[in-house]
Amino acid sequence: VVDVRTITSQTGLFTHDPAFTATSSCESKITFIDGNEGQLLYRGYPIEQLAEKSNFLDVAYLLLFGETPSASERETYRQEIEDYSLINESLKTFFEGFHYDAHPMAMLMGVVGSLSAFYPDALNIRDADTRRKTALRLVAKMPVISAAIYKHSIGEPFVYPNPKLGYTENFLNMMFSRPNQDYEIDPLAARALDVLFILHADHEQNASTSTVRLAGSTGTNPYAAIAAGIASLWGPAHGGANEAVLKMLDDIGDISQVDKYIAKAKDKNDPFRLMGFGHRVYRNFDPRATIIRKLCHEVLAKYGSDPRLDLAIKLEEIALKDDYFIERKLYPNVDFYSGIIYSALNIPVNMFTVMFAIARTAGWVAHWNELVTTDHKIGRPRQLYTGLTQRNFK
Ligand code: ACO
Q1: Distances, alpha carbon 161 to alpha carbons 20, 59, 330, in Å
Q2: What is the pLDDT of residue 72?
Q3: CA distances for 242 relative to 37, 171, 239, 325, angstroms
Q4: Which residue, among 172, 174, 163, 189, has the nearest Cα to 295 in the 3D structure?
Q5: CA 226, 228, 229: angle at the middle one, nearest 5?
Q6: How far apart, in whole angstroms, are the C-alpha atoms of residue 231 and residue 40?
Q7: Does 243 contact ligand 1 (Cβ within 6 A)?
Q8: How far is Cα 171 from Cα 151, in angstroms, rounded to an integer?
Q9: DSSP bridge pairs for 40
Q10: Probe residue for ligand 1, chosen from 20, 40, 203, 273 as the CB with the greatest number of ligand atoms within 8 Å
């Protein structure tokens, strides 16, 4: 049941649609979702085909520019990504200001927001070269900043990006290599991460992307708009769900406890929800979850089984047969299985949402770019005032 009303107020006619359940906020040519059919297309290409045949950097280019790069465009683009991946040395002092156990998303929000101080030129949004530079700088720097956050949290020196490595290989190297120790990058880990990044790269007007667009509509510095998107992503109802799923699986602990947690999720007096279940748009299945479930089996076949996968499979099996979940069309979403893969790759739980942010940066910058290159007004939702009528102050 949704509460959408058309209201005539003293100031005119408007639609009251709390939580935007039935309201489109913009036109976009980037991503298409058919929630009833479980279909997701980036620039017309099915997500299944991109996950199988493409790679994250090409997909980021596709989202941004509308087509995957030609061979010569790819060469220029990869060079730009490499050039922009270095972060300003004085950012290091910024990291030092954070306590080692600060949540990585809090640090990410702060550091990315601070880039607006390093790149005031980004405000020149009418210039196509500047916009390209901003978009590619963000895509290039996000994994570097994210790995630096992890290194800061464990007290190890930062690892610089290595131009010889691919995007996800570089990320793994910056996360896990240590001075004077050999670190071998596993191609399966790099590919698994690449597929996860493709699946998370965009999802039309979700909360964080809408936040980026709303902030961007004011003409603010794009780095600040992306920091706003990071803030919005953090919550457990959105990107924070991947972290929450693993915590939930750890809490459940054993298959014998699954029924108890399903009952809790159905109890309207209990705030507990099955994390990684349900989606505002998908009312059939989330196509990304299907790809991730398969990937999860592939990764665990190599890295060794994880009892949490058995638990997740059982939970899914029981929930999908339960009238409560059937009636409400609640299915596993993209983040039901992603955390199990991240965990197998040794990525700590509190970094999961940061992983999501690295990937979603491609979508955020594509939407920001689309917004500022098309006719737009400042985003300004209306409200239905329910407070007191005018009274006199004595
Ligand atoms: N567990 C139990 N019940 C649920 C769940 C859940 N995970 N999700 C929804 N419901 C129930 C609600 O209680 C409500 O029941 P009611 O009609 O009896 O009141 C009904 O299903 C509809 O739920 P809403 O909250 O109205 O649906 P909405 O579209 O607003 O929320 C959301 C979508 C936030 C994803 C929700 O399903 C949820 O909280 N899921 C868990 C968190 C999660 O996995 N988030 C990640 C989303 S995907 C992403 O951002 C990458």
Answers
A1: 41, 21, 41
A2: 98
A3: 24, 19, 6, 20
A4: 189
A5: 60
A6: 25
A7: no
A8: 12
A9: 33
A10: 273
Query: Average pLDDT for residues 216-236, to the nearest whole number?
Result: 98
Atom of ligand 1 nearest to the CA of 203: 51
Q: Which two tokens stand for residue 324?
A: 């409560």
Q: 326: Cβ below 6 Å to ligand 1? A: no
The answer to whether the CB of 296 is under 6 A from ligand 1 is no
Q: Which residues share a beta bridge with 31?
A: 42
- Rounded distance from Cα 345 to ligand 1 centre (Å): 28
Per-residue pLDDT tens for 63-106? 999 999 999 999 999 999 999 999 999 988 889 999 999 999 99
Catalytic residue among 103, 200, 238, 279: 279
Q: What is the pLDDT of residues 238-269, one digit of tens each?
A: 999 999 999 999 999 999 999 999 999 999 99
Question: By the 8 A CB rule, do 260 and 353 touch?
Answer: no
Residue 145, H or E segment: helix 128-154
Max Cα-Cα span within the chain: 75
| Protein residue with least CA distance to atom 50, ligand 1 | 238
Calpha distance 198→59 (Å, rounded) = 7
Between CA 249 and CA 326 the distance in angstroms is 21
Least confident of 90-94, 112-116, 326-330, 355-359: 90-94
Give the other-Cβ count within 10 Å of 157's Cβ: 10
Show contacts of 175-181: CB within 8 Å, 24+ apart.
175/147, 175/150, 175/151, 175/347, 176/346
The pLDDT of residue 2 is: 63
